[in-house]
Design a protein that fits this description.
This protein has eight helices and six strands, in the order βαααβαβαβαβαβα. It is an alpha/beta fold. The chain has a single domain (11-203), classed as Rossmann fold (3-Layer(aba) Sandwich), CATH 3.40.50. Helix 6 links the parallel strand 4 and strand 5.
């Protein structure tokens, strides 16, 4: 985006990050997530509703998925996994790599992260947004303190406005509110919920009824 300040009339994309079985359901997800596992089910269901809402409002939905095969991992990633005894998540072709609770439509873009956190490292992701005139990213998916934050951080630095749907994400290592507060303070992110489409389907600068904004 060439460092320019995006106009407030730019388009919005709902970015759904890593809503996949190994992160949201089954024994792998349950073993990793330290809080109540029903929280992941709720996040998945709420994100699916946000996807439906975006489609109904004519807001583009962009899906991001993770593939963690050892062949995709860099040396530092392999060293970390060996040191911490982590097993690969979402191997190519596995049930764990499949989308959970959401199914991209044929005309919706899907981008793949090969053993990395940040969607901007996916080939074609940024160019797709730029080509589509997107200047505002509404973020959903998992995890708030890992891949959602990594993508929001880069997006902010590249000039995209950031909104996070608090009920469509959950943190893995840190308290949810601490992560959301960090994104508010550092990225100027708006934080709202999926049932406030008047807030998140439009970029900052558009008038929103006071009762619909969530601090």
């Amino acid at each position: 985006m060439d460092g320019d300040t995006p106009p407030v009339d730019g388009r919005t994309a709902l970015v759904v990050v890593d809503l996949q079985n190994d992160f949201c359901a089954g024994p792998v997800a349950a073993a990793r997530y330290p809080a109540d596992p029903t929280r992941l089910a709720t996040v998945a269901a709420t994100t699916a509703r946000a996807v439906d809402t975006a489609r109904a409002h004519g807001t583009e939905v962009v899906f991001v998925r993770f593939l963690g095969d050892p062949a995709h991992q860099g040396a530092s990633w392999r060293h970390r996994d060996a040191t911490l005894r982590k097993r690969p998540k979402c191997p190519t072709g596995s049930w764990g790599a499949e989308f959970h609770a959401v199914t991209p439509k044929a005309d919706e873009a899907v981008f793949t992260k090969y053993a990395c956190f940040d969607a901007f490292l996916s080939e074609g992701f940024e160019q797709h947004l730029v080509d589509g005139g997107v200047h505002h990213l509404a973020m959903a998916g998992v995890f708030a303190d890992v891949c959602v934050d990594s993508t929001a951080r880069t997006g902010f630095q590249k000039g995209f406005h950031i909104t996070v749907l608090a009920d469509c994400t959950a943190a893995l290592h840190l308290p949810d509110e601490a992560v959301l507060g960090f994104m508010r303070r550092v990225y100027g992110a708006r934080v709202t919920t999926h049932d406030q489409p008047a807030v998140w389907t439009r970029p900052p600068g558009h008038p929103v009824p006071d009762h619909q904004e969530r601090a």
